[in-house]
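Give me the fold.
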Amino acid sequence: MKRVLVYYAHPAHRFSRVNKALLDMAKDQTNVTVIDLYEEYPRFRIDIDKEQDRLRNHDVILFQFPIYWYSSPSLIKEFLDLTLEHGFAYGAPDAALTNKIMGLAVSTAGTESDYSETGYQTYPLRTFLTPFEQTARLCNMTFLAPYAYFGAHAEQDGFLNEHVQSYGRFISALRDETLDIDAACALDLMNATNLPVKG
């Protein structure tokens, strides 16, 4: 069994529909640690030692957030800037994050077709998440295809519930080691329709 750590970051949580539902599902998973970064650090005063211990003591690090200006909310960037220090996260043979798994669970206001070369956003969603992928690579972590929900402001005939249930399966599969990691890395994105769970 792997130890899963979910870092949730939404600066407007009280107005959220999609991420609030995903967070509730994450909290419902047994033997999974869930941290609401904006609740824990409303003034951005991150306890570096505490967070480095959390990172050290978990096998899977999952960041859940809405896309804000083509990236994450600012507290995640601050978190990464401060906690992933040279000598801790990278730059040493025994760096603490080596062989751990990094995943992202993200939502966008735009549709999937918006995030394409011919769409409104010009680039695929995965392109905007490249800094996270390179961060994982620098830290010798395995980077999973992002778990993505498009069109967060639109009603989608029950698809949100399907996505939330699948998110629960995604987290539990990470914990129980039933997610096909190679397949999850090879995908462009993951969602409720293509979750590569073994068995």
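The CA atoms of residues 52 and 159 lie 36 Å apart.
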